[in-house]
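Memo to structure team: turn this sequence into structure tokens by end of day. - J.P.
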Amino acid sequence: MVTTIYVDGMRSVHCVRAVFTALNAVDGIASAEVSMGRAVLEHDGRASAAEVTAAVEALGYSVREVSEQRRRLVIRGDHGEDSTGS
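Reply from structure team:
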């Protein structure tokens, strides 16, 4: 899953680092790309919007919006073919 959060109150590189650190401590998050006012998270579904929001708001920032996008990860070679290639 990919979750994008929009954060108010981030004003410096320190803010970005603090949010990055807090989000990476949430169970299930595989990666976090954090920039001023926004974070894009890839996770396995265990990280709920409420947990992500709580982690950011514990730092004193406000989460304005959370957008979740479910997507299926395609495994290389998985095209519905059997081992014979048919």
